[in-house]
Design goal:
This protein is α/β, with parallel strands linked by helices and 264 residues long. It has a domain of 184 residues: 3-Layer(aba) Sandwich (Undecaprenyl pyrophosphate synthetase). A 6-stranded parallel sheet has the order 3-4-2-1-5-6, sandwiched between helices.
Length: 264
């Protein structure tokens, strides 16, 4: 009986709890840019077998992809303007083809689904040269078709690594200066935090105010290393497919209650 009553009580109380948190949020303190490390898809699938016993990795990734639409709904109602979601790291690209190919297909389908809704501007970020050409072409097409749509700007980090992004930014800076005839000494003297920032994948967008990671892991793992220097962090125990609106609202509430000093 207890095992039955407990979820029944939760089903009643959690919507009330969600509404209470939402009603008390100060939207003048809402983070403008939220980054989310969508972690735990594989572990979720193993911990929650399907009725037919399926615990496959692809099942976990499909469940995680479905959750993204809910996340965007929550961002809209909480006045978040920019969302960066980490879908695939550059290290993930070394996974066995039997795992990687279905994952790339799920990512392609997810991005297409997001674009088809015509609600958000989608910007792919990452080492595009490492991805299959058909996926890169699709990402470029989606970016072009959604450019300028008024709504949450979504950075979809695919083939992304924070160290690689910084290295690529420095290379881009050096190359652009060399192309206009600057000497090595002139290029070196012009390198600054501001100049490197202008060559990042996320150039032109605000740095993330809040970074959320699911699945209980408490590390960045290379996510937005440069941009998150002054971000607030929120770590949630739930695997990504189990991440709920109440978890998101708790993260927003925790952010709004912090005194940000930006390293001062």
């Amino acid at each position: 009986m207890k095992a039955y009553i407990k979820p029944a009580i939760k089903a009643i109380l959690y919507p009330l709890y969600e509404r209470r948190i939402f009603a008390k949020l100060d939207f003048t303190q809402t983070p403008h840019h939220v980054g989310v490390i969508l972690d735990g898809n594989r572990r979720w699938s193993k911990a929650n077998p399907a009725a037919d016993g399926d615990t496959s990795t692809s099942r976990g990734h499909k469940a995680g992809a479905t959750k993204i639409i809910e996340l965007l709904d929550w961002c809209e109602e909480s006045k978040v303007e920019v969302l960066t979601i980490w879908l695939l790291s550059n290290q993930n690209l070394s996974r066995p083809p039997a795992e990687l190919e279905p994952l790339l297909k799920i990512i392609a389908d997810t991005v297409n689904d997001l674009a088809s809704r015509r609600r958000w501007e989608i910007r792919p970020v990452g080492s595009m040269e490492l991805l299959p050409k058909n996926l890169v072409d699709q990402l470029n097409d989606v970016a072009s078709k959604t450019k300028g749509i008024k709504g949450v700007v979504i950075n979809v980090a695919i083939g992304y690594g924070g160290r690689s992004e910084i290295a690529d930014a420095v290379k881009s800076l050096i190359t652009s200066d060399a192309n206009i005839g600057k000497s090595a000494a002139e290029i070196a003297s012009s390198i600054s935090v501001e100049e490197i920032s202008r060559h990042l994948y996320t150039a032109g967008l605000p740095d993330p105010d809040l970074v959320i990671r699911t699945s209980g892991e408490q590390r960045l793992g290379g996510f937005l290393l440069w941009q998150s220097a002054h971000s607030e962090f929120y770590f949630c125990e739930a695997y990504w497919p189990d991440f709920r609106r109440v978890d998101f609202l708790r993260a927003i509430r925790a952010y709004s209650q912090r005194n940000r000093r930006f390293g001062k």
